[in-house]
Design brief:
The structure holds two protein chains of two kinds. Chain A has 21 helices and eight strands. By secondary structure, chain A is an alpha/beta fold. Chain A has three domains: 3-129, Fumarate Reductase Iron-sulfur Protein, Chain B, domain 2 (Orthogonal Bundle), CATH 1.10.1060; 135-288, 3-Layer(aba) Sandwich (Rossmann fold), CATH 3.40.50; 295-416, 3-Layer(aba) Sandwich (Rossmann fold), CATH 3.40.50. Chain A starts with a helix and ends with a helix. Chain B has a single domain, classed as Transmembrane di-heme cytochromes, Chain C (Fumarate Reductase Cytochrome B subunit), CATH 1.20.950. Chain B contains ten helices and no strands. Chain B has helices at 3-34, 53-59, 67-70, 72-91, 93-103, 112-135, 137-142, 145-166, 172-189, 197-213. In chain B, helix 8 (145-166) runs antiparallel to helix 9 (172-189). The chains are: A alpha/beta, B mainly alpha. At the A-B interface, helix 2, helix 7 and helix 15 of A face helix 1, helix 7 and helix 10 of B.
Chain lengths: 420, 219
């Protein structure tokens, strides 16, 4: 056994807990999880059945933590997990799983499959079986600061532009303000309007905020690849900065898995609760809406649907904010059938969008057909979402299928129609 | 061994062995699974109505929106044979008598003809879900020896019980003894096969409900 494989198996032994043991013992092989997986549904390939993606983890569980499994391993009835097998599983654990968690919603015995995929990735990452694309993003986040290799000057540039557009001064590294605002690289590069929107809204609400030059990146590639030690380093940057600046709140950007990382995984990674609260931008906006601060001068007229990002809604628990906000700004909001916690993933979450092999890209395009159908069935030309990664993936899908769909970010849409 | 000796053995020594393995096996497996524990979640929880382990234990008995349409056989067949099994096992007069002998507890039984009907429906549902397992690519792909074996273990007590009551195939004493033997096999293997979901399903649903409920998501 190679040293890296041994490390991988050890990592899996480490993450196996009572929930995982209970889940594996409860599985009756009914295969209903496949009916909730966009990769299975859009390809019809049975290997994408969610519970099957966990086979290496199941065998390590059985061989290490059950009496019968240990006996089976001793007499050679149960074969050990190998490097070749993990390499084969790379596609199943990363390319074809966006950790959207829809399978966990339908399992009749209550198996939290996405919880287990997240844990399996710990073993995949340390044994060297993560895809190169995600490895690269992780390396750039650790060494440079963000998954796209952006440095502070790029952010400073966006700040300068937002200041020019709004006529406001944006604080940097200012202590004792209400909010530390985080961004994701995708927002910095592709959607700089997000910061302008925030400046406008904060001014209206009388909220003070700052950006931090040592902690601007909210995304956490360590969580996507499944390396808790790296994830901890990345999240610590934000925690240290927020606690140094003594802010009351840290504002998670629209980006889905950034929210999972900072709000839910962060305290567990650093081993203690924070001295500040983490708020998702939509939670804040909905709160302002309820207080009557977020008044609209007019409404967006075209009929539109909402794409609920998995990590914010189904997995992050921001369930009740998006719809009232979209209703506040859109005149013709059309609720779709599978919405909110039963939404369909864009097809590129959980790090999948960072995998740029031909196979992975072709698979993503196939998986996107489910989103395409949702748009077509609603008969709309506009879709609104609130995750920078979803936006990139959906725009790729729209291009791929040459659709006429306009994709908008919710925060910017609100800012555009905000009363002056 | 004649029929009466066989019946006496399965009712005495055989039952003792089976119940012994069942009870110890269940305890052992429960300890093996749940003593692994889990780490405390240090993130501050979000409160949401209906988001808890207990809610999910009940909620997962109801199919999520759109799922019955996607896999009707799994749901309709699954409900039918689980409910059917519960009725036959717990509401057939001779079974209640046995439970009364063992525990002192008893309750009213359903008429024998009704139990007959439920048994036939339950067996039919089991045949249908078996056919579905063979036909449906995902199910066939996931199936291992354990799936066919546990199906057989569950089906035999139904079949032998029904044949015994109908006085079919074999003399009553033989069939009754075979029926009891098949139940004993089921008891012996239950803790060590996927049939153990009868116990862990509650823990699994509780965990998923608790873990997601912490984030404010009723699942």
């Amino acid at each position: 056994m190679s040293a890296s494989l041994q490390k991988g198996i050890n990592a899996l032994k480490e993450v196996i807990d009572a929930p995982i043991a209970s889940y594996f013992n409860s599985c009756v092989h009914c295969g209903l999880c496949a009916e909730a997986c966009l990769f299975y549904l859009e390809t019809g390939d049975v290997k994408y059945t969610p519970i099957h993606k966990l086979e290496p983890l199941r065998r390590v569980y059985e061989q290490e933590y059950t009496l019968l499994g240990r006996l089976g391993k001793m007499v050679g009835l149960s074969k050990a997990v190998t490097d070749d097998e993990l390499e084969e599983w790379k596609e199943l654990v990363y390319d074809s799983c966006t950790m959207c968690g829809r399978c966990s919603m339908v399992c009749p015995v209550g198996n939290d499959i996405v919880y287990m995929v997240r844990k399996l990735r710990e073993g995949m990452a340390v044994s060297g079986h993560a895809p190169d694309g995600i490895k690269g993003a992780t390396k750039r986040t650790v060494e440079i600061g963000g998954p796209m290799g952006l440095k502070w000057p790029a952010v400073a540039n966006v700040i300068k532009k937002a200041e020019a557009a709004t006529g406001e001064t944006i604080n940097v590294d200012k202590p004792d303000v209400d909010y530390l605002v985080l961004l994701s690289s995708m927002e910095i590069v592709n959607f700089p309007e997000y910061l302008e929107a925030l400046v406008k809204i904060f001014k209206k609400a009388g909220i003070t905020f700052t950006l931090a030059s040592d902690a601007f990146e909210a995304t956490n590639a360590g969580i996507q690849i499944g390396a808790s030690d790296i994830a901890k380093v990345i999240v610590s940057r934000i925690v240290n900065s927020a606690e140094k600046l003594k802010v009351k709140y840290v504002l998670s950007p629209e980006c889905g898995h950034a929210y999972m990382a900072i709000r839910w995984e962060g305290p567990n990674l650093i081993g203690r609760p924070y001295n500040f609260q983490v708020v998702h931008v939509l939670e804040l906006l909905d709160d302002l809406r309820k207080k009557g601060v977020l008044k609209m001068k007019d409404k967006f007229k075209d009929p539109l649907i909402l794409h609920d990002p998995c990590q914010i809604v189904r997995r992050g628990g921001v369930l009740e904010s998006p719809e009232p906000l979209i209703q506040a700004v859109a005149e013709n909001y059309i609720p779709i059938v599978d919405k909110q916690k039963m939404n369909w993933c864009c097809g590129g979450g959980g790090g999948a969008s960072a995998i740029h092999t031909d196979e992975a890209e072709a698979l993503r395009a196939k998986a996107f057909r489910i989103k395409k159908r949702q748009i077509e069935e609603a008969g709309v030309d506009t879709m609104v979402t609130f995750c920078a990664n979803c936006r990139i993936v959906i725009e790729e899908g729209i291009d791929h299928y040459e659709m006429n769909t306009k994709l908008l970010g919710l925060t910017e849409l609100l800012a555009e129609h905000l009363e002056d | 061994m004649n029929d009466m000796q066989f019946l006496t053995w399965v009712r005495g020594t055989g039952l003792d062995i089976a119940v012994g393995i069942f009870v110890l096996g269940v305890l052992w497996r429960l300890i093996e699974i749940y003593s692994l524990g889990r780490k405390m979640d240090l993130s501050p929880p979000r409160e949401a109505a209906g988001a808890s382990g207990w809610h999910t234990i009940f909620r997962r008995s109801v199919p999520p929106p759109g799922m019955v349409k996607r896999s009707p056989v799994s749901y309709i067949g699954g409900y039918t044979f689980h409910i059917g099994l519960a009725i036959v096992v717990f509401l057939f007069a001779p079974h209640i008598l046995l439970i009364k002998d063992l525990t002192g507890l008893s309750w009213p039984a359903l008429p024998s003809q009704f139990i007959d009907l439920v048994t036939v429906i339950t067996m039919a549902a089991m045949v249908v879900v078996l056919a579905d397992r063979i036909n449906k690519p995902v199910k066939r792909y996931l199936s291992t020896f354990g799936d066919w074996f546990t199906w057989t273990l569950t089906f035999l007590p139904l079949l032998t019980g029904w044949l015994a009551v109908q006085h079919l195939l074999l003399p009553y004493t033989w069939m009754l003894a075979l029926h009891i033997l098949s139940v004993e096999l089921l008891l012996i293997f239950l803790p060590f096969t996927k049939l153990f979901h009868a116990f862990t399903v509650f823990g699994s649903r509780w965990y998923i409900g608790k873990i997601n409920g912490h984030r404010g998501v009723p699942v």
